[in-house]
Amino acid sequence: MSKGTDTRHAILDRAVALSSRIGLCGLTLGRLATTLEMSKSGLFAHFASKENLQLSVLERATESFLGTVVRPAFKAPRGEPRIRQLFENWLRWAEAMNIPGGCPWVQYAAEMDDQPGPVRDLLVEQQKGWMGILAECVRRAVAEGDFRKNLDCDQFAYELQSLMLGWHHSARLLGDPVAETRARQGFETLLKNAR
Amino acid sequence: MSKGTDTRHAILDRAVALSSRIGLCGLTLGRLATTLEMSKSGLFAHFASKENLQLSVLERATESFLGTVVRPAFKAPRGEPRIRQLFENWLRWAEAMNIPGGCPWVQYAAEMDDQPGPVRDLLVEQQKGWMGILAECVRRAVAEGDFRKNLDCDQFAYELQSLMLGWHHSARLLGDPVAETRARQGFETLLKNAR
């Protein structure tokens, strides 16, 4: 990678981290410049507009999510082991990437659902892509014989996504010390019902 | 109720509706004044500060949630019927109250989890109260014999809350036409596992 690409990625990693706490709407070039101790004009040279910065942050968050959660899980065998690995990586990814506000997708989703425009459009496309990856892994688990043939794979993906949203709510907002235990217990019930 | 109280409630209902779309952080006295076509100084006379407005919005949202979701459900018999009614009322409350951005708690939770202060403190207290009400209804359902004796009632409440967060994500962000069907199917599975 060129030095320019490195710099851009380093800036965007900090922007993902910041936006996990203050949201995409609060992520102005001025605010990011202050955090990075850079000049606003230097940032402007990279991103040109707040909207372009927001879009770049979403793209960088997806690269990070694919590299930390999805691709490592695909090294596990197809079927239930791969779904377990996705779940484990997902629980850990914000921490692994030094993202202080927890999973930024939860923040972005609640924030952008009523803000029409290109940023929302990209987020929706990314989230649909993720739900598609999840459902496809569940279909593989059916094909491998780990899960029953009549399983509704999209319903499984929906319920797993729900459990992760519940975990974020319980751990990050309520500070419940057993939040992760509850998420794991819900996940085990989901697997049991799928077998 | 006095005319002053009526006016205050009417202002706060509009503020709840607005904050369901733009969040609590975006809810300034100036922005609300524009929406209401009121003078900013008139609003200032009611709320004195943005923080006081945010706290009043949370209190009003709770009154609305208790009056639309919780109290009507308590007219249903204890046990599973009451939990079903809570679920139904919860699915409908944002619509019933003309709150355009869907359940404002989802918005507030994602937004405030990294914003320490009195607003977050009140929100956490309210959300813990709600989880307590849910878990208590589940314990009643165990006592009534609708659910099995060894059921983990707090886990049930966690999973039900998760399903609602998943529904909001799927319906409001992804615009999935079967989001409600999925939430209902997840709810039926939860009930079945609890019996």
TrEMBL record, chains A, B:
Start-end of DNA-binding region: 28-47
Protein name per UniProt: TetR/AcrR family transcriptional regulator
Organism this protein belongs to: Candidatus Polarisedimenticola svalbardensis
Alphabetical list of InterPro entries matching this protein: Homeodomain-like_sf, HTH_TetR, Tet_transcr_reg_TetR-rel_C_sf, TetR_C
Pfam family, one: TetR_N
Alphabetical UniProt keywords: DNA-binding, Transcription, Transcription regulation
Domain HTH tetR-type residue range list: 5-65
Gene Ontology MF term list: DNA binding
